[in-house]
Specification:
InterPro entries: Aminotransferase_I/II_large, Ethylene_sulfur-biosynth, NHTrfase_class1_PyrdxlP-BS, PyrdxlP-dep_Trfase, PyrdxlP-dep_Trfase_major, PyrdxlP-dep_Trfase_small. This protein is of the alpha/beta class and 473 residues long. Helices cover 48% and strands 12% of the residues. Bound molecules: pyridoxal-5'-phosphate.
């Protein structure tokens, strides 16, 4: 009775990424009410600096109360505003904030900005603008599981993976780019572009200048687009510094060229400010045609005028944004160190990272076999027995089994400590069990060797005995 669009399975809802969330919902951890429940570590949410926003709101009550700085009501103005170009004050404040995150090395023109209901909507809108159904975008693996839904489901576009490997820390290489392009051609797919997340979800690493140069060279030689999802740009807490694709274009004197028109940035305040519920996203494009098409499309997913007004006030407070950004980075760094050390105690290593709200964790040594079935087997144990919802690498399309994304910024410090304790006891019991089963296996092997060789031994003995007997005769 329903359309083929809603009944097709390219939404990705059956991925272990979403299934983990469902399991968490059935038995959510609560310090008091459900201390044995599942701890949610599969959600890239930033709750570490919400208190800073709360105290700003306390000190500045007017914007949330529909008042201007003269304490006059602006309720009617906001209630009636429905221009899909967005509030100019908000667009100005947002581009300035985007520059600030990039150390003011680049500036953004508010006329090139399209407001969307989160990065989810921004990515899909860009797909609608750049790809026909059946066209492909190349994406480095592992990638954010939501892309299968955001980029493919309603647009009919396809994703072809750029296979990255742990051997070089999952870095993008020229060979991997060329191979993905060839793979798409072999599948008769027209490649329309490359999409990267910088810094990466799930790796928590920012792209190097070398990788960014490779990408610009690649899209210019193939005459395709580049989308840089920079939703985590404000979460970079350690060196190396974050380099935006805009900086690369500027430093290579490519601004205002045909190449720069094919480079588009996606941004959102869901991660850097920890406001996913407010649905504040944006597309920044150097191509006027894309800006105009995306603006028209944005009427399907606008940000409410009330939210735009509030955020324009918050982001216009430069002293606040400065303090917020540095304090948020400091807190993320502290949390990151805590989880890395906590896992290290249990002999679990993380990929070295400098950004994001998660670690990319190597649990290959805990797999019963080196395959994705064993990864899911381990994941189920971690969800149901250990009580942690983490995301298996296969849900991020990782090509190697045994990697997991573990989020650390959506819980209290106490909950993270408890999660680490659960990991420690799980690893200890697994090691003990493995040790015992290996010991048992050794015993079994020895016994089976004995039983196997017994007939021969018995035969030899009896034969010799017979001989002896014979000799004695
Ligand atoms: C790389 C990436 N892009 C987009 C999104 C969606 O963000 P939003 O809440 O702004 O729609 C996420 C959310 O996790 C993400 O990690």
């Amino acid at each position: 009775m329903l359309s083929s669009k809603v009944t097709c399975n390219s939404h990705g809802q059956d991925s272990s990424y979403f299934l983990g969330w469902e399991e968490y919902e059935k038995n959510p951890f609560d310090e008091v009410k459900n201390p044995n429940g599942i701890i949610q570590m599969g959600l890239a949410e930033n709750q570490l600096s919400l208190d800073l926003l709360e105290s700003w709101l306390q000190n500045n009550p007017q914007p949330a109360a529909f008042k201007n700085d003269k304490n006059q009501s602006i309720f009617r103005e906001l209630a009636l505003f429905q221009d899909y170009n967005g509030l100019p004050a908000f667009k100005n404040a947002l581009v300035r904030f985007m520059s600030e995150i990039r150390g003011n090395t680049v500036t953004f023109d508010p006329n090139n900005l399209v407001l969307t209901a989160g990065a989810t909507s921004a990515n899909e809108t860009l797909m609608f603008c750049l790809a026909n159904p059946g066209d492909a975008f190349l994406i480095p693996t592992p990638y954010y599981p939501g892309f299968d839904r955001d980029l493919k489901w309603r647009t009919g576009a396809e994703i072809v993976p750029i296979q990255c490997s742990s051997l070089n820390g999952f870095r993008i290489t020229k060979t991997a780019l060329e191979e993905a392009y060839k793979q798409a051609e072999n599948q008769n797919l027209k490649v329309k572009g490359v999409l990267v997340t910088n810094p990466s979800n799930p790796l928590g690493t920012s792209l190097s200048l070398h990788e960014l140069d490779l990408l610009v060279n690649f899209i210019s030689s193939k005459n395709i687009h580049l989308i840089s999802d920079e939703i985590y740009s404000g979460t970079v807490f350690n060196s190396p510094n974050f380099i935006s694709i805009m900086e690369v274009l500027k430093n290579r004197n490519l601004m205002n060229t045909e190449i720069s028109k094919r480079v588009h940035i996606v941004y959102s305040l869901s991660k850097d400010l920890g406001l996913p519920g407010f649905r504040i996203g944006a597309i920044y494009s150097n191509d006027k045609l894309v800006v105009s098409a995306a603006t028209k499309m944005s009427s399907f997913g606008l940000i409410s005028s009330q939210t735009q007004h509030l955020l324009s006030e918050i982001l216009s407070d430069r002293k606040f944004t400065q303090t917020y950004l540095s304090e948020n980075r400091r807190r993320l760094k502290e949390r990151h160190e805590m989880i890395v050390k906590g896992l290290q105690k249990s002999g679990i290593r993380c990929l070295q990272s400098n950004a994001g709200l998660f670690c990319w964790v190597d649990m290959r040594h805990l797999l019963s076999s080196n395959n994705f079935e064993s990864e899911i087997e381990l994941w189920k144990k971690i969800v149901y027995e250990v009580g942690l919802n983490i995301s298996p690498g296969s849900s991020c399309h990782c090509s190697e089994p045994g990697w997991f994304r573990v989020c650390f910024a959506n819980m209290s410090e106490e909950t993270l400590v408890l999660a680490m304790q659960r990991v420690t006891s799980f690893v200890e019991s697994t090691v003990k069990k493995n040790h015992m089963s290996r010991h048992q296996q050794l015993l079994n092997n020895r016994n089976s060797r004995r039983t196997k060789s017994l007939p021969k031994w018995v035969f030899e003995l009896s034969f010799n005995q017979r001989e002896i007997t014979v000799d004695e005769r």
